[in-house]
Amino acid sequence: MNKRVLIAVLNWGLGHASRSVPIIDAVVRYGADVVIASNGATKTFLEQRFQHINVLEIPDKEINYGKSGAAVGLLKRSFQQQKINNEQYAWLTRNAEDLGITHIISDNLYGVNNPVIPSAIITHQIGIVSPFFKSQFDKHLAVWLKKFDEVWIPDEPGELSLAGKMLDNKFFDGKTFYLGHISRFRKLPGIEKDIDHLVILSGPEPQRTFLERKIAKKLEKLPGRHIIVRGRIDSDVVPPSTKIEYHSFLHEKQLELFIARAKMVICRSGYTSILDMVRMDANACFIPTPQQPEQKYLAKRMKEKGWFHAVTQKDFGMNDLKKADEKSNFQSPDFHERMEKVIYDFLNK
């Protein structure tokens, strides 16, 4: 029987979408038929990236942050999560047989599993980073993760772990596999660094816009070449400027080349952004979304380890833009062999 794999991807910024690219590519290389499921901007991104693959709409709720930060939006999401899981499980139950699904790979969609279909979930968060109710959240998360046959972690074990304590959960004892530091990008050594600052924006509104305005105001005062990629796959409108080159959205190869050419990349400390900067050996400055515990923890970890520069959105200033000569000292092994073995073994179950 031919393998037919459902790959479901969370719509939360474009990080989950972009890190799913090497997974989807590998599954296709192994000869399986693929069906993708997502919604919102992530669905649009995946439809454009994989035009030969059917991309379905899956039930989910839009994630929004408040003007002061992410706390209210994240708390609201936590109360909705079980209902969302149930809706996604029901959607899959209704459609799995008609779609002919033989395997399920879910990127952080906890409800996309089935007791009679082999399933794996991709996540860098086994335990919750939260200033409140951590034990309760960890218990719920462990229950959701155990519904999958395998948990795939886009990280390296041991000292090279990017996620750190986010992989700790005393309530979880399921089967885990490390994929390595996966990324859709290729290393491009020997490229001339002719972009002074490359800003890559992402994540829910209104915080995306707040950060864009703050960085742009400072870049306008500096000489050199500055590029802002707005992360707006839904809009071609860009602000007028004689000092900054704006792009609403860049496709993979062009963004890859810009990162390779940048003396400094400025972006959120989302986990996929960190994976991409590691892959590209980039000199990066990470700015966590206000009140987003995961991003705050990751930014702090990158800075304390001496791997990358990081600063809060409130404290970000001109001095942070002048750290282009401070090269990251993080060296990561190539992920392809580790990732492809995990996928190959899973597809042969």
UniProtKB/TrEMBL annotation:
Q: Which GO terms describe its molecular function?
A: hexosyltransferase activity
Query: Where does the Glycosyl transferase family 28 C-terminal domain lie?
Result: 242-341
Name of this chain's protein: Glycosyl transferase family 28 C-terminal domain-containing protein
Q: Which organism is it from?
A: Cryomorpha ignava
